From TrEMBL:
MF (Gene Ontology): kinase activity
Keywords: ATP-binding, Cell membrane, Kinase, Membrane, Nucleotide-binding, Phosphate transport, Phosphoprotein, Transferase, Transmembrane, Transmembrane helix, Transport, Two-component regulatory system
Functional description taken from the UniProt entry: Member of the two-component regulatory system PhoR/PhoB involved in the phosphate regulon genes expression. PhoR may function as a membrane-associated protein kinase that phosphorylates PhoB in response to environmental signals.
Lineage per the UniProt record: Bacteria, Pseudomonadati, Pseudomonadota, Gammaproteobacteria, Cellvibrionales
Residue ranges of domain PAS in the record: 88-137
InterPro entries to which the protein is assigned, alphabetical: BphY/WalK/GraS-like, HATPase_C_sf, HATPase_dom, His_kinase_dom, HisK_dim/P_dom, HisK_dim/P_sf, PAS, PAS-like_dom_sf
Record carries keyword Membrane: yes
Protein name from the UniProt record: Phosphate regulon sensor protein PhoR
Keyword RNA-binding recorded: no
Amino acid sequence: MRYYNWKTELVRVTLPLATAAIFSTAFDLGVWPVFIVAAAVCTWLLWQMQRLNDWLYRGSGTEPPEAIGMWGQIFDTIYDMQKTSVAGHERLQALIDYLQASFASMSDAVVMLDAYGNIEWCNDAANTLLGLRSEDVGTPLLNLLRSPGFLRYYEAEKFALPFEMVSPRNSEIQLSISISFFAERNRLLFARDVTRTYRLEKMRKDFVANVSHELRTPLTVINGYLETFAEHGGENPRWDRAIAQMLQQSRRMHQLIQDLMLLSRLESLPKAADHQVIHMHSLMDMIREEILAAAKGPRTVVIECDDAITLKGQSAEIRSAFSNLAVNAARYTGDNDTITLRWRQDQGHLVFEVEDTGIGIEPQYIPRLTERFYRVDQSRSLDTGGTGLGLAIVKHVLLRHRGELKIQSVPGKGSIFACYFPLALAAKVD
């Protein structure tokens, strides 16, 4: 297609005017021929504009008017742009229809929200799990889901972790809700039925709690008899050695049951209650004695404590967490290694650190250290005498106190286990 520019159109317009001017001069007709031609040119331009306006008003899908020169080029260009736009719109609509059909077939509830929290679309599962209907489109979600916990989760906009709640449609259904942002602050909400997983987890917790409780009494009796036998032994070295080993393992099993019961209790209660003011220097002195008792050789224990800051929390739980970290350091360090207990304030947090110069941990093992019964080196299980639950207990105690455990380690040089608490748990001493 030939391309017309403004110069071509200028020649097309001025040529009749120049001809009229020459004709008027030759026959001495004045300005009237020029005026008439100029009026005709203007009328023609206005007519082309009217044709363009009428065609655009009719909308896309209609053929453009026939025209010559630049006007024909304008009509054809706009028509091509319309076809491209329609094709792009059809592809986009097909993609939207495909995604909506995919979401509609899901068993999970899917809800699309605009930037103001109004419902734009939801699938059929949203009605089953959340009680939302297609008639609710345009309604603010928070007007329909009135759970106080969900309201806090939604308004906090901290969607890294899912939120669990009971279905407002069926109280026997447990939901896991996750929200993510897309486009310009729009939100996409997914709600999944996790009732079976929730019940299995509850059964596991109940089983561990019940079994631990039932084992404690017979194990106490066994411990008592073994201790009596150990005290009155000496006649047969073979029996004495066997009784000593049984007593050692019985005590280890007793400690395992105690840790399981503590872990079960920590999991069953979401937040620590009865916060007391904990004087950290006194607590760290007690922990130092536990380190020296647990270590199988000489250790150097250093205490660095900011005495001006105390911690508000559940005293028994905090002591258990800090003691687990310290005793672990004692078990995984050698003779003449140094263990440092440090309490300080750092960049908006309260920090308790246990630093050692022991064997260290390989980086690939660190993310799994807080799992139950996980050990980096299974061959050291009997040597260290631990239950494999210490760091799991630490993690749950910190969660109940809005804290976080951070681990740094260099193999062969040592490790730092740091507990970070919010400043809201600080109590300054005058």
